[in-house]
Amino acid sequence: MINPKIEQALNKQLNEEFFSSYLYLSMSANFEKLNLAGFANWMKVQSQEEYSHAMKFYNYLIQKGGTAVLEQINKPDTKWENTLAMFEATYAHEQHITECINNLVDLALEVKDHATNSFLAWYVNEQVEEEANVTKLIEELKMVGENKTGLFMMDRELAQRVFVDATATAK
Ligand code: FEO
Q: Looking at ligand 1, which residue's alpha carbon is closest to its atom 1?
């Protein structure tokens, strides 16, 4: 049995995670157009991560005897001023997601749903990592500034990122 309030809130977060996947794929497409294949790769992997975050909610809802409801996904932005603006938008979005996760934890504690509280701990930790990764890239981009060689070097480095399903090893 799942508390109906929790079921509804988890479904809302399911949609948030799918939107995150959409948003980062949109950024990836934007980087492709700018011929920054490494940045495009980094964002595509980010999008895959978000899909896995969504599926972790999806699977949990089903495991708890709830229903996963797939609502409409909002259209993400398609244009940003520059590379730095894209990463700043990423950081702002991750802060929003952290707030959503924190609110979910508050709700789980309020209704004494300890299983969901324990399930959400994975996301609490993940958000620390997500925000730190993006902050590091923003700092690097600020250092690089308008320097094309610096941007090229970063692009080469970000091309190395591969998707690892972190949700597969953690329940
Ligand atoms: Fe699923 Fe980037 O938070």
A: 50
The pLDDT profile of the chain, 171 residues, written as one tens digit per residue, is: 899 999 999 999 999 999 999 999 999 999 999 999 999 999 999 999 999 999 999 999 999 999 999 999 999 999 999 999 999 999 999 999 999 999 999 999 999 999 999 999 999 999 999 999 999 999 999 999 989 999 999 999 999 999 999 998 654
Domains in the chain with CATH codes: 4-158 (1.20.1260.10)
Residue nearest (by alpha carbon) to ligand 1 atom 2: 94
Distances from the Cα of 111 to the Cαs of 3, 138, 150, in angstroms?
Answer: 8, 38, 51
What is the identity of the amino acid at 2? Answer: I
Binding site membership of 97 for ligand 1 (Cβ less than 6 Å): yes
117 CB under 6 A from ligand 1? Answer: no
Distance from residue 19's CA to the centre of ligand 1 (Å): 10
Which residue in the block uniquely carries the two structure tokens 């690089």?
A: 144
* Phi, psi angles (nearest 5°) of residue 40: -60, -40
Q: Give per-residue burial for 78-112: e unless 16+ CB within 10 Å, then b.
A: eebeebeebbbbbbebbeebbebbeebbebbeeee
Is 53 a pocket residue for ligand 1 (Cβ < 6 Å)?
yes
